Request: fold
Amino acid sequence: MKLESKRLEIMPLNLHEMRIFIKSRSDYEKHANLTVTGVEVPEFYRDEINEAMQQEPEWWTNKNKEYLFHTFWLMILKESKTIVGQFEFNGHPDPQGEVEIFFMVEEPHRRKGVATEAMVEILKWGCRTKLFRKVFIEADFRNKAAMASLLKLGFKKQPNDEDENPSTKFYKIIYSDEPCFEDLEVDPIME
Reply:
């Protein structure tokens, strides 16, 4: 399975690929015929992912869609065959169909619309499959690129908590009674 946009391939890693990737991203890049960047997964993160794979092995079968909510999804520039970032869901959607997504775009590829372009495809996929209906993303208000992207995509700021602490979460409902997000056209580069 993979999602595609004009510039990106967006691919979830299966169990075999994930094991290679967290052991050595460079080895994964060679295995997948991608440009080897020399960037590696931080050790603390490797330990966390290894632990999750061992605790919940049933999540990681390709026959089960559960792994899609626990694995890394890579954002790969088609032209250069380079990994430019990744995202992951914070687990399976809750009973209300709500899910949180964490994005990371690598430094040289930031402020180029990569996250926006990937998010459009994720939202379209969510709408088509009905696997989740509401997406949350946490973003720092000082991150101007993230704020521009979230605004462009139609995300709304989560209300402050009961103690009036400012929220850093934004949300988007991708389907309800409204038309599906499928026909959204966003120019990710115009930020």
In short: The radius of gyration is 17 Å. The mean pLDDT is 85.
